[in-house]
């Protein structure tokens, strides 16, 4: 089927099976490798992107659900060549260890701040619980988000 969607501000048109996970469209069709495959079952959050301003698990979002929609990935989170404040904070706080889950972590944090610019520590912890990190970087993640809020 023909699917058109906007990705990081660019209109994209694809001829693709409608049930193809958005994750593979982003990575394989559009070359946006920042969004990662973790569990493939909607459980870990590594594949988190924004669809129409909401965080979604792209591994379990059929591309037909994104038709006509506005997708933002980690590559499109900053403005032009400027990093998003959260990306700067991630660097400042040395958050990543292996780094694999971090784009999903940042996309979830970015949605939190877009919907609640001044979250409490408890709200940050609650918002980030769906994103797993096998290296256990959770305390640095919370500190980095708090530094953007402060
Ligand atoms: Fe999508 Fe784990 S890869 S939630």
Automatic annotation (TrEMBL):
Keywords associated with the record: 2Fe-2S, Iron, Iron-sulfur, Metal-binding, Oxidoreductase
Metal-binding as UniProt keyword: yes
UniProt key word Protein biosynthesis: no
Family annotation (InterPro entries): 2Fe-2S-bd, 2Fe-2S-bd_dom_sf, 2Fe-2S_ferredoxin-like_sf, 2Fe-2S_ferredoxin-type, 2Fe2S_fd_BS, Beta-grasp_dom_sf, Diverse_Oxidoreductases
2Fe-2S ferredoxin-type domain segment(s): 1-77
GO molecular function, one term: 2 iron, 2 sulfur cluster binding
Protein name: (2Fe-2S)-binding domain protein
């Amino acid at each position: 089927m023909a699917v058109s969607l906007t990705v990081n501000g660019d209109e994209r048109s694809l001829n693709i099976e409608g049930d193809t996970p958005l994750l593979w469209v982003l990575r394989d069709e559009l070359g946006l490798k920042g969004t990662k495959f973790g569990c493939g079952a909607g459980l870990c959050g590594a594949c988190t992107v924004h669809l129409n301003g909401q965080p979604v698990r792209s591994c379990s979002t059929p591309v037909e659900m994104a038709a006509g929609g506005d997708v933002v990935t980690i590559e499109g989170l900053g403005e032009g060549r400027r990093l998003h404040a959260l990306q700067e904070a991630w660097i400042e706080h040395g958050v990543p260890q292996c780094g694999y889950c971090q784009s999903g972590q940042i996309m979830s944090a970015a949605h939190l701040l877009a919907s609640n610019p001044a979250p409490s520590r408890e709200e940050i912890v609650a918002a980030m619980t769906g994103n797993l990190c096998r290296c256990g970087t959770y305390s640095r993640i919370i500190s980095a988000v708090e530094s953007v809020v402060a």
